[in-house]
Structures are given as C-alpha cells and as structure tokens.
TrEMBL record:
Taxonomic superkingdom: Bacteria
Domain (Phospholipid/glycerol acyltransferase) ranges: 62-174
Matching InterPro entries: Plipid/glycerol_acylTrfase
Pathway: Lipid metabolism
GO molecular function, one term: 1-acylglycerol-3-phosphate O-acyltransferase activity
Protein name: 1-acyl-sn-glycerol-3-phosphate acyltransferase
Organism field: Noviherbaspirillum pedocola
Keywords: Acyltransferase, Lipid biosynthesis, Lipid metabolism, Transferase
Membrane-spanning segments: none
Gene Ontology biological process terms from the UniProt entry: phosphatidic acid biosynthetic process
Lineage: Bacteria, Pseudomonadati, Pseudomonadota, Betaproteobacteria, Burkholderiales
Length: 247
C-alpha cells in the first residue's frame, strides 16, 4: 500500500500547487482560508493522521505559540483555523511544501540574524493590528515528544506592542492506545522525505491540539511571557517542569 499512499500524497501536493498558484490570487481572504484549512485536513488524512481538538479556538486577537514536534504541526493547526506562521528559513527549501507554506503567508526567518528578527517583529505587530492570526514556534526547532525546549523570547515582544494576549497551544501525536507516537518526531538528521515515509508506513497517528488559557501581556516582559507559555504547554503535555528546562 505504500506506493499508493505516496502517489496520493504527490497528487495532493500537485493539487496544492495548482490551488495556490491559480486560485489564491483570485479569491477572497475568507475563501483562501477555507482552501488552506481543507487542504491541510486532506493532507493529514491521506497520511493517516486523525485530528482531535481540546478546547475552543480563539476568536479574539492574540499571538499564538505552540511547541514544535514535526513538519505536520503547521498543517495540524491550519486544519482547525489557519494562521500566518513564522518559521525558520530551512522550511522554504522543503520539496513543494516549502513553496506552499510561503504562498499560505508563512514568514521565514534566518537563524542568528538579528536584523531579520527586528524586521519580522514589526511585521507581526502590523499583521496582528490588521486582524490576522499570527503564530510561531518559540523553541526555534523541533523537539522529541516528552520534552519542551527553551523558548526564545524575542518575538513575544510583538504581543506586548500589539496589546494582545499570548495564546498557547500544546500539540502532541499519539497512537491508538494513547501513547506518544515516535513516528511523529522530526529531529536530528531526519529529512522531510524520511519523515513522510515513516508516517505513511505507520498511518495510525492522532494529532491532538490543546487550546490553553490566554496569557495577558499587559505590564509584562517578553521573558516572563515566554516562561509562562512554556510552563503552560509543558503542563498540558504532562512534561515535568524539570524535564522542560534547558539541558
């Protein structure tokens, strides 16, 4: 069955290319959002990934942050309510998906470039003021399930400047028995293609998105917001706080 599933993924990617290239320039923002949501749901379904939501998606402006496990994270979140993501520039080089992420509004940031951070920070504030949903992964890279890496605090300043709360999400991938599924981990030297093939071989993942209480940004420092968000996400994932600290 692997060749069949892989063929379906490739056809779905081609469908995404056609939709982003031909339809996105012609349709309204609301229609584009529906297309992104449905395409993301279909991609995960083809990969055998089921979706589960705990909590209620926010309707009011907020800066959304989430732990980072896999390349699937963007699509798991977009399957419920599409966001404009900030992601590391490496993602732009992913086959097909990198271009699709860019067309969906993803903002790419280069590691270690402070000028990039300042430019993107200003853009995030403007996007939030314009009513867009903005999200990023403050770990800055993926981490194995059962661990939450230190959060980079820089971009949390956007919530303070925009006058909106921080909205934490916690994301985990489990098997049918409810255990954390190792096939979801996208770490180390694993390539995107290797990860995709691993997921297609298993086809029994459940992506569970947990919407946590908002964190008020008024009168706080970005480091305080980062620490509070990290603590909330680690607690929701049942990762002991000690295990969530830097090595």
């Amino acid at each position: 069955m692997m060749p069949l599933h892989l063929a379906r993924v490739l056809l779905h990617l081609l469908r995404g290319l056609a939709t982003a290239g031909l339809l996105f320039p012609l349709v309204s923002a609301a229609r584009r959002e529906r297309l992104i949501r449905n395409w993301s749901r279909d991609l995960l379904a083809i990969c055998g990934v089921r979706l589960a939501l705990r909590g209620t998606m926010p309707d009011t402006p907020a800066l959304i942050v989430c732990n980072h496990v896999s390349w699937m994270d963007i699509f798991a979140i977009n399957a419920f309510r599409p966001c404009r993501f900030v992601a590391k520039s490496d993602i732009r080089d992913w086959p097909v998906l990198g271009w699709l992420c860019e067309r969906a509004g993803t903002i790419f940031i280069a590691r270690g470039r402070q000028r990039d951070v300042r430019r993107i920070f200003q853009g995030l504030v403007a996007s939030i003021h314009a009513g867009e949903r903005v999200a990023f992964f403050p770990e800055g890279t993926t981490s194995a399930q059962g661990k939450v890496l230190p959060f980079h605090a820089n971009l949390f300043e956007a919530a303070i400047d925009a006058g909106v709360p921080v909205q934490p999400y916690a994301l985990q991938y489990r098997d049918r028995a409810g255990r954390l599924h190792p096939a979801a981990d996208f770490i180390g030297e694993t390539t995107f293609v290797e990860s995709m093939l691993t997921i297609l071989r298993h086809r029994d993942l459940r992506a569970e998105l947990i919407v946590l209480p908002k964190i008020d940004s008024a009168g706080t420092h970005r480091r305080e917001l980062a620490a509070a968000a990290r603590e909330a996400i680690a607690a929701a994932l049942e990762v002991p706080l000690e295990a969530a600290q830097p090595d």
